[in-house]
Amino acid sequence: MNKINIMEDAVKKWQRIIDKKGSDGGVLDCPPCRLYYFTLCIGCPIAQYTGKKFCKGTAYIPWFRHQLEKHDKMIKKIYCPECEKLARDMRDFMIEIRDHLIEKKAQEKGK
Ligand SMILES: [Zn+2]
């Protein structure tokens, strides 16, 4: 699976959360984590984009913190309007990375 497809799956995951059809299982159901986390987050398209491992510097951190501090439930999903906003931020961030990869690929082809 190429990295664009992986990010496409990540966008879909967050869209399902926004649509209240899904929840966030963190590492367990994050498409790039499933492929890259076991190698200590090396090669993950998100880490490559931000230059930081374990989703530092991404929209995931505010989401995770809010879930922990405000809701503290086993299942991370949308419980309040702030959750929804943070999930949208994360989805948009996944889109940003996907588009960045698409652009990079197009540039490589053009050479
Ligand atoms: Zn909330």
Protein model, in words:
By secondary structure, the protein is mainly α. The chain has one domain. The chain contains five helices and no strands. Helix 1 packs antiparallel against helix 5 (81-110) and helix 4 (60-71) runs antiparallel to helix 5. The longest helix has 30 residues, at 81-110. Bound molecules: zinc ion. The site of zinc ion has 7 residues, from helix 4 and helix 5. Residues 66, 70-71, 79-80, 82-83 line the site of zinc ion (ZN).
Q: Tell me the count of domains.
A: 1
Question: Whole-number average pLDDT?
Answer: 93
Overall shape: globular
- Structural category is mainly alpha
Ligands = zinc ion
Number of DSSP E strands: 0
The biggest sheet, with number of strands, parallel, antiparallel or mixed sense and barrel status, is: none
Low-confidence stretches: none
Between the first and last Cα atoms, what is the distance in angstroms? 23 Å
* Proportion in helices: 55-70%
Rg, nearest Å:
14 Å
Number of distinct helices: 5
Strand content: under 5%
What is the ordering of alpha helices and beta strands? HHHHH
SSE layout and pairings?
Elements (H helix, E strand, L loop, with lengths): L2 H16 L12 H6 L8 H6 L9 H12 L9 H30 L1
The chain binds zinc ion.
Structure described in brief:
This protein is an all-alpha fold.
What characteristics describe this protein?
mainly alpha; 5 helices; globular; binds zinc ion
